[in-house]
Fold:
Amino acid sequence: MTIATLFALLFGGIFLGMPIAFALGFSSVTTILLFSSDSLGSVAIKLFEALSHHYTLLAIPFFILSSTFLSTGGVARRLITFATDAIGHVRGGLAMASVLACMLFAAVSGSSPATVAAIGSIVIAGMVRQGYTESFAAGVITNAGTLGILIPPSIVMLVYSAATEVSAAKMFMAGLIPGLLMGGILMVAIYIAARIKKLPAQPFPGVRVLARSGLIAMGGLMLIFIVLGSIYGGVASPTEAAAVATVYAWFIAVVGYRDMGPLKNVPWRKGNEAWGSAGLRALWQVPAGLLGSFTDQEVKKVVLDGARVSMMLLFIIANAMLFAHVLTTERIPHTIAETIIGWGLPAWGFLIVMNLLLLAAGNFMEPSAILLIMAPILFPIATQLGIDPIHLGIIMVVNMEIGMLTPPVGLNLFVTAGITGKPMTWVIRAALPWLSLLLLFLVLITYVPAISLFLPNWLSS
Amino acid sequence: MALRWLHKAEETLFSLLLVAMVLLVFVEVVLRFVFNTGISWSQEATLYLAGWFVLIGVSWGVKQGAHIGVDVVVKMLPMLWQRVATLLALAICMAYCVMLLVGSYEYLSLMKMIGIELEDIAIPKWYALTILPIAMLLLMLRFAVLGWKVIRGDASGFGFHDEGEDSMHLVQSDAPDGQDNGDAGRDSDQGTPR
Structure:
């Protein structure tokens, strides 16, 4: 009865078009009032404490803000130049370079649709000019863009650890090898396709050019090293690493790359300006630029964007914690777990059912919302079946990646349709061959836990 | 007019809170690594700032159409029924706010009666919690405004935020000289609920 009320109210609310946060909150509060002896006062304070008693959760607004600083077209272009210089000379190199650029941008920005938009809008046209078919180019990018939520630092992983209390640092360790593996699989597939289709290679630009573009790209990529280095090394918590990353991202965007803020269009060195005078100019321009960015319209807009996304996500999380509280006090996951174990369903069978369930949900809802609703239910069941919580998290994230490629709510499909100007059906067909690789990858991740667990186990031993 | 002023004030306030949170944690890290000290109240302060940050933002998000939701089902209904569904959804949202308003009032009066302070900061705990009822009142105001718009036919739903659409501003026209035309792809203003 309790289960029925809770879920009827939740899904009724969601499909009525309520914001997910309110649907979660309303169904939980009503269930608490009807079926338990908790007072409204205790519910209200639980909501507030969900927001103000979880230090790890603060990593979410910080990472979102740091990624909005670096999710600019300028950063995307620098990463593409670097990736093309590095592997463009291999057969099918431009496509492989695009995948590499997607992986790098994904790690910096943490968002899949942003990756497709920023990288795709440049490289798809570029590949077509080089003689690739447009559907090949669009398919590769739509898929490679999903790596945004798998390669750490990733917001979706932070949401998973908020929902399950699994260590966010461990999730960040676990995501690295799967992310690199998926990128590798895509590149190998492109290489094979390039051999068969006789796709072009580009001339190698020379070591000097590569070193130069590498150095420029490093400004943004340092963010990954700062974050992952400090977390893997165990010197900082994800929240602290995220705060440092935000300040660094602001510094690079305003002073280093000068993509926004008062120093925009002011070069480090004008034409043939002497190094000395450029240095002198920087001496007063850099502090002035940093101070000026506090009143700059563009910088303010970035902060506002970052704030908007984080507030909405954190409010969903707070309400999802009420929801999780109802689930645990009513022992709902426990009941479901006992039923499932009663059926004699083995762990691998449960994983199949879970994957199907998540893939279906991925068609309708946004990754974070799905994780917040499903993780508290699936997590206790998986633990009882002996599935590692971190491994479970990675499986869920890969499922969410696939959800971005399936209609009607496949964000990446939408973005690719937007940049190519083609209809959705065309994009779906273009993405399909690569999507099947992603499905194979899901099977691999699901049944070979070592891929996800090797790094966290090795680093913590 | 007053509503527009409120909107702007909320925007400034939560942006400042976010910046303050980042800087607090950043300074704390620098102090720990470089100077080997720390600020005793920094963690608690950051956490309460986070609470205020989100609660100020939720009502702003209703006006801005920034909340996340599923509208594929509602969008399939004929216009009249879309508006009816939205009004029903708004009524439920209102109910949620009322319940939490009552709850926060209960808890706040309890805290005020006991008179305890925060752990690391010497201010009464109920001060720090006042944002909860305020946020619920602001939310009810925003829901009422949206409801009025739906009744008049100016809006048919919550106007959910679309991350895909949002990313489209990163689309660049493929200029060979690498000039940034970053905003060329922005196709819709998100200022008003659609």
Summary: Chain A touches chain B through 87 residues (CB under 8 Å). The mean pLDDT of chain A is 87.
